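Dear support,

I submitted the protein below through the web form. The confirmation email said the job was done, but the results page showed an empty box. After a refresh the structure appeared. I'm attaching both so you can tell me whether what I see now is the final result or a partial one.
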Amino acid sequence: MDSKDSGRRITQDLFSIAGKVAVVTGGSRGIGLMIARGFVESGAKVYISSRKKEVCDQVAADLSKMGTCISVPADLSAEAGIKALADAVAATEKAVHILVNNAGTNWGAPLEKYPESAWDKVHDLNVKAIFVTTQHFLPLLEKGGRAGDPARVINIGSIDGIRVPFVENFAYSASKAAVHHLTRVLAQHLGKRGISVNAIAPGPFESKMTEWLLNTFKPAIVAACPLGRIGTPEDMAGIAIYLSSRAGAYLNGVVIPVDGGISTKPSA
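What the results page shows now:
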């Protein structure tokens, strides 16, 4: 084998997730779908969940044309739904190598009119559900890790949890800051159990959640981005694959902004 072939093999091995079992919550659209598609195309066996059974089933069927994707509809706003998801995966899998906690919601309203109910809804799904989902998947994740290649928990935060957003999404931005710190705390506790915990903080990507924002402010958002564009599905899949592969095996407790440099831009 010449050096070129050897280098290619090493690179492929470093970034391979082929044969791994992954669970992606909120995997039927937006950021979750970008990650699920990237995982499937990279040879992982992927379980996706979302509240709407018809949508979840259809997306899984579409992704299964490229690999293996299984639909497990679940409402993660309640512990019963989280337990049902974990039990369904445990019924067919002995181990889970990757858990992506992506399911989330948003709420925007002026400060004076921001409802208390928004805080409960947003924080229950964006923060508490991540903690409870990780709890329920711990037995499978512990079986998925091995020396030098831990099982992975990837939490989806936001750059709105890093910098102050210009829109009035008070509960959302606070919840994502909480996700980032919960990631650091869990990393300290689960690293000893063969599980790494990291977070991705996306900037602007095309999704249902960002539809209004991009329809209203896209030119300004693009102008504010040092790389001069919004994110693509490949950008999101790439960082998730990196974190899940051998290449990312020594990362633990980090929050990675995927935003083209927006969160590092100096204030005006």
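Response: this is the final, complete result; the empty box was a page-load delay. The first strand starts at residue 21 and ends at 25.
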